[in-house]
Amino acid sequence: MKVSMSCLTRAARMAAAMIVTLALPFGQAASAAEPLSAIGKGEGALNIVAWEGYAQDDWVKPFEAKTGCKVNRKYAGSSDEMVALMRSGGGGQYDLVSASGDATLRLIYGHNVQPINIALIPAWTNFIPALQGPSFNTVKGVHYGVSYEWGPNTLLYNTQKVTPAPTSWSVIYDEANKGKITVPDNPIQIADAALYLSKTTPSLGITDPYELTQPQMDAVVVLLKKQRPLIRKYWALASDEIDLFRNGDATLGAAWPYQTNTLQAAKVPVADTLPTEGVTGWADTWMVSAKSPHPNCAYEWINYVTTPYVQAQQAIYFGETPANTLACAEMDKQQAGSCKQYHADAGASYFDQIHFWKTPLKACGNGQDNCLDYGAWQRAWQEIKG
Amino acid sequence: MPVSASLTGLLWRRPALRVAALISLPAVWFVLFYLAALAAMFISSFHTVDELSGEIQPGWTLDNFRQLLGDWTYGRIALRTIGIAAAVTLTDGLLAWPFAYVMARYAGPRLRPALMALVMLPLWSSYLARVYAWRLILAHDGALNWLLHGLGLPAASIGYSNWAMWIVFTYLWLPFMILPLFASLERIPPSLLEASSDLGAAGWRTFRRVIVPLAMPGLVAGSIFTFSLTLGDYITPLLVGGPGSDFIGNVVYANVGVSNNIPFAAAFAVLPLLVMAGYLLIARKLGAFDAL
Amino acid sequence: MRFDLARTLLWASVVAILAFLFVPVAIIMVYAFSASNIQGWPIQSFTLQWFARTFADDEVRSALWLSIEVAVVATALAMLMGLLAALAVYRIRGAASEAIAFAIVLPIALPGILTGMALNSYFVLWGINLSFTTIVIGHATFCTVIVYNNVIARLRRLPPSWAEASADLGAGPWRTFRLITLPMLSSALGAGALLAFALSFDEVIVTTFTAGAQTTLPLWIFGAIRLGQHLPEVNVVVCVVILLTIVPVLLAQRLMGRAALLHK
């Protein structure tokens, strides 16, 4: 049964032409949304992108019952991943993101998030002043998000296998701990090494761990490349680090308080500490997508999670500090002494000690223009790991 | 009725039309949704991305390829990926033989479907959960070391390493090697083997001279799966890999799902595309397409 | 005697390979009963609470439903396209048939991350929102080859004389197809559909790129794994899925085994 060849060749040629036509791009303009003027009826659903531990049933379930907005959670383990998720599919997939300070500006300048009508968020007036209009979520007086919680990146260690208790980041660069160390698989981790070097090698002149010139970056890369053979695994998921400590693969690591709390709850002998060189940290912001399909539910969520009660729940659960000052009393009610433990009473002085994550830019803080931008950080990180 | 009857009649008389009618739906689907998408990806590898806003800048540039070729990091990652994929394919090829052979030659009519079902069953239990289970087996205080300790043997330190990836990949894709190999072994007529031994060939000789060549298409077909599934994975390296375990897939994922640099990811993805295209061409020569 | 030794060794390796295949599955099942929410070896204490919690979890339920829906629709599409493509390719020879076969094999032969990424950027290009439909498009594309392979293999083994006899007896092509060809293809179609369903049901890599805010079961499992908080729930889900599928899979194998015997 022979079919005429010329007919098939013609069909093949047509198919090829169609493939190429379909593959050529055409532009699509992004629209800027106006902020909501009043919170209307909920849309019945809410899609959020959150850090691991930021959307726990403890407060998601009551929220769903109260507002009728069914929460759809997607977890992300790095700021980069959050930005990518908010941009995925042309945006409009997700309503809300719990972005850290190193993602917020990228989302604002990428027109991925919409301005917030702060008058609709009553709890905002009780925020610590530093988080009412911080530069990482408020541009030219326009609020692009509502601050949530903040905290430090800690040094986690196994209390039985690491004695005496470490006080310096030097342990994670120490040959003696080869194969027992884990650090986050995240380019922003470069800042941790830069902070360490700014104290141990002052001659490099690092003043801000997020503003690095090429020679400074070179020195950081040398340190991190020396660290690489000591690493058991670069953790990408919170559970990576939990398993590494639970099953004895790692005894030292850079961590979030979330891992410490989870491990301690499972009776694993671990503790964390803020080393003397100082720490990096995060200050997170709930931001609403520019193309949010459920904006009313998004505002309902922001209002719900900024109430003192939920702020306290989140703070205790993750081990961080709430933005709402009224949460302190609530924290002590939920777990005695937790307000002091998580510094909710410490205010500005403690806040200033943490070097919060921010997006590295070409422009250094001092007016110079010779710093490395985030693209260079990502390439450096790939080179370190590779 | 007359219309449909005349249409059927037309299709019956004109075989070319009949084939065209049959193929039209799959053809449109594959052109529209798949081949065009691949072409779009290939085209986008010549674009760049604005780093702050994340928007793709159209235009034609070789920057992405230059960056890939200029940095030995990516070469190492590519070699590691291809090397482990080859090792996994080889291991699965070896492991699949006894199993497929027993299934095709020795297993009775009752045992054979049971063995078949047992090979298929792991495919129904989440791939992610199985990879995760291996983490517990290979961890420092995991099941393997517990067993070794119980036997008085020294502990193995293979958790979170390339060895772990090799084991887990071999495990994951083994059924994909066993099934096509079994299918081609099953097709060998027993009379042929009898003829071979009647002609005085010993068991090993029959195996090498008759069975292996006839099973080759099935083996190659299986190897397409094991090789390509390993080549394109990024979750197993993420879960069980160590500090130097990034695959091409991890770099691609990091650039799509993390830094949103689709052009760069697309440029790197051209490599597995070329490798698989070459592999498929060789596989076609070996007749594997009929055995898939 | 030597021959028997070879045979014993072969059977021993079959048992060893089965153990290799099933040890991780066994671990998953056992850890569904672990009291601790993070996994360590060996299990310290046992509980049934995760079953109750998982059954009460509507997120798990909706993810499971979504996965079943996706798999059903994708398998149906794959059966249709695989069957049509196989019937077409069976009727032609030469470059055209090879090109079609190549295009159909491509989605499974190319690494999943390529398919996923290509589809993702393609949908974005056309301004198509990621949704249930985009997940199905991805799955149907790589499932088609499974059905196609099964059907074409069966077609090539069928004696053409049957269809010819039917035509000689005056049956039209559609009637011949319906009464002769289709019944003879049914077990191949069934086997292909079963495998396609399994493939779609457990797919992560392509789905990661083609799903928006939708959570299929594997995506939910990945979320639970990365959170590291409710791992036994993952194990419970996997246990339940295995138990639900073990019967149909066994039955299908028996049926197909019987069909194969009948052919001989």
UniProtKB/TrEMBL annotation, chain B:
It comes from Acidisoma cellulosilyticum. GO terms for biological process: transmembrane transport. It is a multi-pass membrane protein. Residues 78-283 form the ABC transmembrane type-1 domain. The keyword Membrane applies. The keyword Transmembrane applies. This is ABC transporter permease. One of its GO terms (cellular component) is plasma membrane. Keywords: Cell membrane, Membrane, Transmembrane, Transmembrane helix, Transport. Belongs to the binding-protein-dependent transport system permease family. CysTW subfamily. PANTHER family: INNER MEMBRANE ABC TRANSPORTER PERMEASE PROTEIN YDCU-RELATED, INNER MEMBRANE ABC TRANSPORTER PERMEASE PROTEIN YDCU-RELATED-RELATED. It is found in: Cell membrane. The chain crosses the membrane at residues 20-43, 77-102, 114-137, 163-183, 210-231, 262-282. CDD domains: TM_PBP2. PROSITE patterns: ABC_TM1. It comes from the Bacteria.
Automatic annotation (TrEMBL), chain C:
GO terms for cellular component: plasma membrane. It is a multi-pass membrane protein. Its main location: membrane. Keywords: Cell membrane, Membrane, Transmembrane, Transmembrane helix, Transport. GO terms for biological process: transmembrane transport. The chain crosses the membrane at residues 9-33, 63-87, 99-119, 125-148, 179-198, 204-222, 234-256. The keyword Transmembrane applies. It is found in: Cell membrane. It comes from the Bacteria. SUPFAM superfamilies: MetI-like (SSF161098). InterPro entries: Bact_Polyamine_Transport, MetI-like, MetI-like_sf. Residues 64-252 form the ABC transmembrane type-1 domain. PANTHER family: PUTRESCINE TRANSPORT SYSTEM PERMEASE PROTEIN POTI. Belongs to the binding-protein-dependent transport system permease family. CysTW subfamily. This is ABC transporter permease. It comes from Acidisoma cellulosilyticum. The lineage of its organism: Bacteria, Pseudomonadati, Pseudomonadota, Alphaproteobacteria, Acetobacterales.
